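Example 3.2
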Amino acid sequence: MTDAGETTQIKAYPMPRPQPMHPPREYAELRQQCPVARHLLPSGRPVWLVTSHEGVRTVLADPRISSDRTHPGFPLPYEVADPEVLKKLFRFSQSLIGLDPPDHTARRRLLISEFTARRMQALRPRIEEIVHGRIDEMLAKGSGADLVQELALPVPSLALSELLGVPYQDREFFESRTKIQINHNSGLDERARANGELMSYLDGLVAAKEQEPGDDLVSRLIEKNREQGQLEHGELVALVALLLIAGYETTANMIGLGTIGLLDNPGQLAVLMADPGTAPQVVDELLRYFSISDTAGSRVALTDVEICGTRVPAGEGVLALGLAGNWDPAVFAEPERIDVRRDARRHLAFGHGPHQCIGQNMAKMELEVTFTTLFRRVPSLRLAVPSAQLRYKDDANTYGVYELPVEW
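Structure, written as tokens:
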């Protein structure tokens, strides 16, 4: 077993991408030479990078490795000296994804029935209506558009607004606050202000539904909580905030990147067009290939723990890099190639273990409907500029594109 003290060369994380569609070169080098390696975050704090598929799964399933964002050793990219500021910044995270069992298990149980495959399939006709409606509006405006603004952002925003019972006319408010919170370049004061404004808005929304419930997830969550008595009002608000933030930006980014991936690989797109029944397999492969939330596997070791033969000391941060794991050739042959015929179901885009994304059924269904409908209705769709010239979100927690100009 390799000991932490034997590590002599410490490099910085994150590393730049050699090209927009590929992960940093260092991921493959680390996976081959040292799949559990010590690096430095921008804050100067050490962190252990885990880059193999096996290693990522091990970290995400190990109860000795915590998701608590307020733990002093948690691998934040920036330093927060005031613990009260830290609590405010991660109030929504500590409602679910920042909790460990048994608290995490109990709260997840409140939500699990809302995101079953059966319930999501029941939503499918409405998602289809939303996608068709957005494409109708896009086509009516002419022969070109920014697909991010016309389709990628509105589809998950509309779907999530209806599911949660959030007025869609308020989408610009929560979209702008979400973008600030996930941008690496946002200052602490700016993050705290955006977080406070979002929480204040949702506090009013939840309070209104407590008085007058509707037919939506938030109202049902309030009723379940009344029966079980798990959450205080503020904790309920934080949980709703998490659902809103986690379910919107990620799906929007995948719609944009997935469209680029298919347009840049017409042979793969032809498979989907020849048989729309392959959509679930196509979506799994796109999720594997892009793995947009690479730092979702941020953790901290609660005790000394061995990961793939390397000892990580208690109190040190761990990054289980899903993108690196999803490009592990030991699991996915020729990972640098989009191959929609491959079985990519073991991908780590939704994580693994107790914290595996609770909304994955909804996200996959939205992606399946969007891709099949878009390319069927706009078969001449093409990029207006080469994909290499687009502006990619290198400064955000979830990868994507800022604009996606297309023509038809």
